[in-house]
Amino acid sequence: MKNNQMCAIIVDELNDDALKPLTNERPLGTLFFDCKYRLIDFELSSVVNAGIRNVQLIEDEDKVRSVFDHLGGGREWGLDAIGSYQYVNYFQDSENKKAAGEKYFNNTIEFLEKSHTAYTVIMGTRMLCNLNLRAALKIHKQTDKPLTVIYSRTDADEIAAYDNILSFDSLGNVITCDEFAKLSDQTGIFNLSMNVYIADTRWLIDALRKGQQLDAPAQLDDFLKAQLPKPGLAGGYEYVGYLQNIYDLPSYYQANKDMLDSNKMNELLYTNQRIITRTRNEVATYYDRHAKVKNSHLATGCDIYGTVTDSLISRRSVVDPKAVVTNSIVMPNARIGHDAEVHWAILDKNVVVKPGVKIVGTPDNILVVPKDTRVEANLSSTEEEAN
Glucose-1-phosphate adenylyltransferase/Bifunctional protein GlmU-like C-terminal hexapeptide domain: from which residue to which, for each copy (predicted)? Predict the structure, then answer.
């Protein structure tokens, strides 16, 4: 059922250098996850599960093609229905308008005014979770504050240097919002901001208008972070489900490997909140009688003749006879040649590993093979470290 209470703004991650080369040509939001999903599917699914149909996307104009390729017309998420409203804005547009002295939040303000909703949810794409926005909105409504930030109690080992850590007073008001790198004590458990906010739409429109007059940060997430410590303005909502903060290659790799743990997989993917992705009408994966597959996930359309262990194999990939894949993530349309080996690696789309070639990473140094690469010689993480 369509929800006229809330609209949504999904802000794709701009700070993705630590995920290169996977993010050379795509934003973080369209990285593959668990063989068939993209990371942005989780934000879109949370939005759809809350009945929201008015959505604005804020993207990097240099990488937006993969977003459009994945979303298509938005049919799977109900964004093609009559009365739905989908709007795209770009990081660069806001920065350029600010530099030129123009009103750089006007596109977002126009979206908010046309949505005719009382509340707005703003979400990033870096925090992998299955968020119940209806529950969060219920808590937001019970406060007398115009802004609620969603956070999770998170171990220091899972926090990036530029992440924001929150503290609250006894009444639940946010009193500080500090970068993790600036904290004097970086051990223990912290209130990690998930870069998800629920705001009263009228307050947000007024704040954006005022902000662009006062030279506030042009990026929406930075703008909202600056509002949090203002006295009595913002409260918090604690998220307690599965969460993986994806900010570098190891955290991305671990998020995928987590799905081979049935408890974590069920906590993320099989709650009463369904995860929606773009549908593909493909044949089932073929397993040769000599194939050996253990503790792995494989999407549709694959041909498996060799051995796959503790790995995730995406659509239309081929593992040839006597080939071995262990502890690896293989993205779509890859081919692992006869007698080749892939261990502790991430292979991007359309990678071809020639027969007999060995790709050998380690648990502490996952090898990444960029998109469209033909690997014709052995690769190892020990050689990379030596170079």
Answer: 287-359
Residues 6+ apart with CB under 8 A from 208: 105, 108, 109, 112, 223
Whether residues 159 and 292 fall in one domain:
no
Does some domain include residue 246?
yes
Profile the chain (387 residues) by mean pLDDT over runs of 10 residues.
78 88 94 95 94 91 88 76 69 92 93 94 96 96 95 97 95 95 94 97 97 93 95 96 96 98 96 87 93 97 98 97 98 98 98 98 96 97 62
Say which residue the tokens 């140094």 belong to: 365
- CA 138, distance to chain mean position in Å, is 24
Q: Is 281 within a domain? A: no
CATH code of 239's domain: 3.90.550.10
The whole-model pTM stands at: 0.93
Domain hosting residue 121, numbered range: 6-269
DSSP 77-96: GTTTSTT-EEEEEEHHHHHH
